[in-house]
Amino acid sequence: ALPILAINDYGVATTAASLSVEVPEVVSPDLEMPSYPPTIIVPARDAITSEGQSACFQCRVAGTDLKITWYCKDKEVKPSRFFRMTQFEDTYQLEIAEAFPEDEGTYTFVASNPLGQVSCTASLKLEAMERVIQEKIVQQIGR
């Protein structure tokens, strides 16, 4: 208890009081955002190109704090001058600058976070240039 003494022209008064200080809990300014598991919106599609030409896979996925990994024939694809990974909003892209026969095969897109994991696969096929142009024309007409 703290002693309190008050004095003026009319007299003296004494009392005692106790003081307790409470420190408020510190609240983080960034309120915790809700988390969502990964969900594939649009899976990657097969790609056809010719040797030395570029190819591209795209996958749209929803979810929070996603870790994205691309695989070629079960081997993780690392960024290089031949492989470029980009993201724009919910679309993730793997760009192959120049495709060679060893790049042919199955590509797997994996998105994960603490709430789950999703994946999709697409294949890359190399064909002669005339055949690739023909296939692209058929795809354009087919749309």
* N- to C-terminal distance: 85 Å
Tell the overall outline: rod-shaped
Number of extended strands: 11
**Which strand order does the major sheet show?**
4-11-10-6-7
Tell me what you see in this structure.
This protein has 143 residues and is mainly β. It is built from 1 helix and 11 strands, in the order βββββββββββα. The strands form 3 sheets. Strands 4-11-10-6-7 form a 5-stranded mixed beta sheet.
Give the topology, please.
Layout (H helix, E strand, L loop, with lengths): L1 E7 L2 E7 L21 E4 L4 E3 L5 E8 L4 E6 L2 E2 L6 E6 L2 E6 L8 E9 L2 E11 L2 H14 L1
Task: Please summarize what this structure is.
The chain has 1 helix and 11 strands, in the order E-E-E-E-E-E-E-E-E-E-E-H. By secondary structure, it is mostly beta strands.
Main traits of this protein?
single chain, 143 residues, mainly beta, 5-stranded mixed beta sheet, 4-stranded antiparallel beta sheet, 11 strands, 48% strand, rod-shaped
